[in-house]
């Protein structure tokens, strides 16, 4: 299954073929908010679809020409958008490495939570993330609990998301219960 049935699909030009679909074995959790620390706008959608109006906010100037994406975005209300089919390579990890294997985009699925490192995520986001994670793990059983990581884990020193606000213990417990 390349798409999550509960997600709203959004056309996105920022992805390409995986070298091998059977390599998918890592789930990476991120956060993003655009403008920073503002929620509910269409900045994330604009960035991932290559349509961000860089004149709309002073912060956006540094995003000019940036081509990034994630497979899914989970908004504060738990709504999910899917930008890239799981079978394909989204551009979310950047320079990265997990257990000695670099280029995490090649073999991972990336999920963005609308949020910041320090503000608590919503209950609706945890519920949506748990359900989505369980769906993905059924399709890609190589994604064991130990292979669900934060962006900070695969790009230490460069990235901090999903940040101290993300409750890994609660999330893992909920995923375990739903297997
Ligand atoms: Zn990230």
Spell the H/E element sequence.
EEEHEEEEEEHEHH
Number of helices: 4
Low confidence ranges: none
Structurally, the number of domains stands at 1
Biggest sheet strand line-up: 1-5-4-9-3-10
Helix content, binned percent: 10-25%
Averaged pLDDT? 97
Strand content: 15-25%
Radius of gyration in whole Å, from Cα?
Answer: 15 Å
If you had to describe this structure to a student in words, what would you say it looks like?
Helix content is 21%, strand content 20%. With 179 residues, the chain is of the alpha/beta class. The chain has one domain: 3-Layer(aba) Sandwich (Lysozyme-like). It has a 6-stranded mixed sheet with strand order 1-5-4-9-3-10. β4 and β5 form a beta hairpin. It is globular. The two termini are 18 Å apart. The structure holds zinc ion (ZN). Zinc ion binds next to loops.
Short description:
With 179 residues, this protein is α/β, with parallel strands linked by helices. 21% of the residues lie in helices and 20% in strands.
List the helices and strands and how they pair.
Elements: E1 8-9, E2 15-17, E3 26-32, H1 43-49, E4 72-74, E5 80-82, E6 88-90, E7 97-98, E8 101-102, E9 108-114, H2 123-139, E10 148-150, H3 151-154, H4 168-177
Parallel strand pairs: 1-5, 3-9, 3-10, 4-9
Antiparallel strand pairs: 2-6, 4-5, 7-8
Helix pairs in contact: 2-4
Bound molecules: zinc ion.
Residues 30, 151, 159, 161 line the site of zinc ion.
